[in-house]
Design brief:
Helices cover 37% and strands 10% of the residues. The protein is an alpha/beta fold. Bound molecules: beta-D-glucopyranuronic acid (BDP).
Length: 711
């Protein structure tokens, strides 16, 4: 197997008695309704059941045999006859019911929804139950999404290079669209729909304005057409200076009526190609991208102008809060300082898209304080599935635990229970923002690699994102379980150890890179290997030393009142907890405090000894992952087994380099010995610095720049 089928493999159910039970229930599929979506749902069920049950399951209209009946009260007489009105009312537009009902002379499994796409989601759910070998006795499920906008973001460029992608070229083949509809477009839509993802932003946030031209819109409309029956809306990242880029105007000032007219006309053009176009994602005044500030206006002016032009078509603006300027002293403060004063100023069809943490998708970050300060603004959280800071497509690093940690963080805005999940759902601010638009976005990396994501386990983070966007109360553990069963095997002797690998993998990645709240020790630009000594970049906040502040007197970034005071951005109770050395979680400690090397940790070790220990335990964790994986030979297909095995060897090599580079470098500052009992780094600091200059980086963007002589 090459991983192309992701978690939708539909291999025969291995448990014989269960398979027989399923076989007697699922003799056929009855689907009333003629929409493309219903047809897709019916053929997915047919395909899935035929594979899982090892027999052909046909579509019929014979109500006297047992099977599955799908539809909505509007398009199916059978569903309408079941009087599900009340229960259906509770699941909304995208939800569904799955239950056993007697129809005519037979017991049927019924999938009912208010809309066709709800039926499709329910069909994937039913198949998932079989794929994970669940009993269907007394089945009665009512499910609906907890968040409205469940959106994937692609950082794909027109030249088909994917920023931070690592899995081949962009899926969108601009040279052959619109004539050629690659079958991958539909397979891609199906993968997303199986999770309930309902939107895709197809291009890079560092946006190329050409995508809004007639030439490209024709191509893009074809993609939208493929995605539509799967319930997926298409969105575009836009460049704020587009009116200038097209040579039409010499300004992009959002308050200039000519600019407003330009965007209005452009919206009309886009909707003439794509009547259900979702809207724009905007990276403005961030990392060199243009924005309203260039014209003396603020983010609200900028976002609202666009929102007005999309409003007549029901489009929305996802406005990113990823901003930081070189002169603010502490990059951590950027988003909060710029956006908090604008709370309440955004139009109702603007949603602020806020990265989970205040810096940038680091292996561990505290949550962004902006989530706690906004009360009247629509917010969605942006996370990263592609492993920009987690070893690209060569390291195993399941992101479920990171997403879960963020969602469950209690910001203590209004006492206990003010979790990020409750903020994202709109619950917490419902008095001040009555009808919020809610959501979650993830930067994903699928490309032309056969298995879509490069590392087979990056698939699991895509999966976790989709499942949590639907239901943020799911645990990363339960999701890993599901994913493994669907993607590899239901055998306990495989599931238990490999789930443990997955659940440990994120923490391992933290430990061998940046434990105890260290952050951003990467080689600049590529973000792959270690370069904690970096100090010569033009901008202060592009240097690793800016983040760790290691000096003779200790290590860590003081963000308390005696430092940058970024802690004051958190709700008072949480700020208090993080400011106090007795209550700040140790794994976030150096995010907020600069502490002496001999500071006593809870373990009784000094900070220095604990730091060293964490680095070593990260490598040990990776070695355990390797040993456990290697025991799985023969339990799964040879191809994926060998692939992951080889990648774990790369990861082990990289983890050792991370550990040794960081330990040797910090030792050059702390001047303290590596405690006994740890294998000593094999080389001196100069050697590790040399590696950072000369080692190949597995990313087409940074393979061997002029500064990198490959030796
Ligand atoms: C950083 C990436 C950069 C992105 C930026 C963003 O290094 O490539 O353009 O985030 O999110 O993580 O806009």
């Amino acid at each position: 197997e090459d991983g192309y089928d992701m978690w939708l493999r539909y291999q025969p159910v291995a448990n014989d008695s269960l398979r027989q039970e399923y076989q007697s229930q699922f003799q056929q599929v009855i689907a009333e309704g003629n929409s493309q979506t219903i047809k897709i749902a019916a053929s997915e069920l047919q395909r899935g059941l035929s594979g899982l049950l090892k027999k052909t399951v046909a579509q019929t209209s014979n109500v006297n045999a047992m099977g599955v009946v799908i539809g909505t009260p509007a398009n199916s007489k059978l569903i309408a006859s079941l009087n599900l009105k009340k229960r259906l009312a509770s699941v909304g537009d995208e939800g569904y019911l799955i239950q056993k009902s007697r129809i005519g002379n037979a017991d049927q499994i019924v999938i009912a929804a208010n809309t066709d796409v709800g039926v499709l989601y329910g069909s994937f759910h039913l198949l998932r139950l079989l794929q994970t070998e669940q009993s269907l006795n007394n089945i009665s499920i009512a499910s609906s999404p907890k968040l409205q906008y469940r959106v994937v973001n692609h950082w794909d460029n027109v030249n088909r290079l994917v920023e931070r992608g690592y899995a081949g070229l962009s899926l969108w083949d601009w040279g052959t669209l619109p004539e050629l509809k690659s079958p991958r477009y539909e397979d891609y839509a199906r993968i997303n729909a199986s999770l309930g993802i309902n939107g895709t932003v197809i291009n890079n946030v560092n946006a190329d304005p050409r995508l809004m031209s007639d030439q490209f819109l024709k191509k893009i409309a074809t993609l939208a057409e493929v995605f539509r029956p799967y319930g997926i809306k298409l969105y575009l990242s836009i460049n704020y200076n587009a009116p200038r880029a097209y040579g039409d105007l010499d300004t992009a000032d959002p308050l200039d009526p000519r600019v407003q007219a330009w965007w209005k006309a452009r919206a009309e053009k886009i909707y003439s190609y794509i009547p259900d176009f979702g809207g724009y994602l905007v990276k403005a005044d961030s990392e060199g991208q243009p924005g309203p500030q260039g014209y003396g206006r603020n983010h609200a002016d900028g976002a609202n102008m666009l929102a007005d032009t999309l409003k007549p078509f029901k489009g929305v603006v996802f406005w990113r809060a990823f901003v930081y300027h070189p002169d603010i002293g502490d990059r951590f403060r950027g988003a909060y300082d710029e956006f908090t004063p604008l709370d309440g100023k955004f139009k109702e069809n603007v949603i602020l898209q806020i990265k989970n943490g205040p810096i940038d998708f680091q292996p561990r970050e505290p949550v962004s304080p902006l989530f706690g300060s906004l009360k009247k603004t629509n917010m969605m959280m942006e996370v990263q599935v592609t492993q920009e800071y987690f070893g690209f497509a060569t390291h195993l690093a399941y992101q479920g635990p990171l997403f879960e940690e963020a969602l469950k963080t209690d910001l203590l805005v209004k006492g206990k229970g003010s979790t990020l999940a409750n903020i994202l759902s709109g619950q917490l601010n419902k008095a001040t923002n009555k009808n919020p638009r809610t959501g979650m976005a993830a930067v994903i990396n699928p490309g032309t690699d056969r298995n879509w994501t490069g590392h087979p386990f990056v698939q699991s983070s895509w999966y976790a994102f989709g499942r949590m966007a639907w239901d943020y109360s799911l645990t990363s553990d339960a999701i890993a379980d599901e994913w493994l069963r669907m993607t590899f095997s239901n055998q306990e002797k495989f599931i238990a150890p490999i789930k443990k690998i997955m659940m440990d993998s994120r923490e391992a990645g933290v430990n061998y890179r940046s434990p105890l709240g260290l952050t951003h020790l990467y080689s600049q630009g590529d973000h792959y290997g270690p370069a904690p000594w970096t100090a010569d970049m033009g901008r202060a906040d592009w240097n690793a030393v800016y983040y760790h502040r290691a000096a003779e007197d200790g290590i860590g970034f003081n963000r308390t009142a005696t430092g940058s005071n970024a802690l004051a951005q958190y709700p008072a109770e949480l700020a208090k907890q993080y400011a106090d050395l007795n209550t700040v979680p140790e794994d976030l400690m150096l995010w907020f405090h600069h502490l002496p090397w001999d500071y006593k940790m809870k373990s009784g070790k000094t900070l220095w000894a604990e730091l060293v220990d964490k680095y070593y335990s990260g490598v040990t964790q990776v070695r355990t992952m390797q040993t456990e994986w290697n025991k799985m030979e023969g339990q799964i297909d040879a191809e994926r087994f060998a692939h992951v095995k080889a990648l774990l060897a790369v990861q082990e090599r990289d983890a050792v380099r991370w550990r040794d580079s960081c330990v040797v470098y910090f030792q050059s500052i702390s001047k303290l010995p590596i405690p006994d009992g740890y294998e000593k780094p094999a080389h001196d600091l100069e050697y590790y610095k040399m590696l950072a200059r000369t080692t190949y980086v597995p990313d087409p963007w940074h393979p061997a720049g002029a500064s990198r002589v490959l030796k």
